[in-house]
Design brief:
Elements: E1 14-18, H1 23-34, E2 38-43, H2 57-64, E3 67-72, H3 78-88, E4 96-99, H4 114-142, E5 147-151, H5 164-184, E6 190-196, H6 209-217, H7 232-243, E7 254-257
Parallel strand pairs: 1-2, 1-4, 2-3, 4-5, 5-6, 6-7
Helix pairs in contact: 1-2, 1-7, 3-4, 4-5
Length: 264
């Protein structure tokens, strides 16, 4: 039977979600909006990538009861991360930083292009590192005990064929999360990560055609005990929990939201 959705109150919080126009980021932004937050979508484009979705995320946040804002942001550029955090000051300053933006490019290690490797790390790893750093500095400047939640992946721990360059970025995200948590704990800032499993999102554009088919149909290579790939909404609640006071004694953690895939 359907379970009641947990209730959170972020009415006084400003939340930045990078990569919030589509996929997991869009679902996370919407959930924070339902909880009353001001949500700043920091994405390279305002329009969703999903052809079945027409309205931008900031409008969905408004409809959900929050305040939606869009700031064009390329997280591979540190000055643009700084700009979006500065923009959040207009709404009181960042209280929760969700470093979610990411791209996917697959390929065998013998065939990889150095430019693709560098692009992946610039977005997926460097964007998380500097997003965490810049948000933490803003929190410290304002004297608030904030939270950072990064998007890792099952790929942080589980190698997959033709995913070596992507896997390496998510391994980096896991260790950025742990290292930052260690260094910021005594400053009142918690840093955690969510590791989604197979999720049907637009990021699968970077996968092989067979991988796209498997994820979209739920017929993934490794059996998922819960029997299907996730919808972005299945993952979003983990971000609200890790940013909430319920997780006040949780830092440096990577929370797997994968339908049980890592169990065996």
């Amino acid at each position: 039977m359907p379970q009641p959705q947990p209730s959170y109150d972020y009415a006084d919080a400003t939340v930045i979600v990078t990569g919030g126009s589509s996929g997991i980021g869009r679902a996370v932004a919407r959930r924070f909006g339902e909880a009353g937050a001001t949500v700043v979508n920091a994405d390279i484009q305002r329009d969703p990538k999903d052809p079945d979705e027409e309205r931008p995320t900031d409008e969905l946040v408004d409809d959900a009861g929050g305040t939606g804002v869009y700031v064009e942001t390329d997280v591979s550029e540190v000055d643009e991360i700084e700009s979006v955090v500065t923009a959040a000051r207009e709404y009181g300053g960042v209280d929760v930083m969700v470093n979610n933006a990411g791209i996917m490019l697959s390929g065998n290690i013998l065939d990889l292009d150095p430019a693709d490797f560098d692009r992946l790390h610039a977005v997926n790893a460097r964007g998380v590192f500097y997003g965490t750093q810049v948000a933490a500095k803003d929190m410290l400047d304002r004297g608030v005990a904030g939270a950072v939640v990064n998007t890792a992946s099952i790929s942080a721990d589980l190698a997959q064929f033709d995913h070596v360059q992507y896997d390496s970025t998510k391994g980096a995200v896991k260790m950025i999360t742990r290292g930052a948590a260690l260094e910021l704990a005594d400053r009142g800032i918690r840093v955690n990560a969510v590791a989604p499993g197979h999720v049907s999102t637009e990021i699968s554009e970077g996968w092989s055609e067979s991988a796209k088919s498997e994820v979209r149909s739920g017929e993934v290579i490794k059996h998922v005990p819960l029997g299907r790939a996730a919808d972005p909404a299945d993952v979003a609640g983990a971000y609200l929990f890790l940013a909430s006071d319920d997780a006040r004694y949780v830092t440096g953690e990577t929370l797997w939201v994968d339908g049980g895939l890592q169990v065996f």
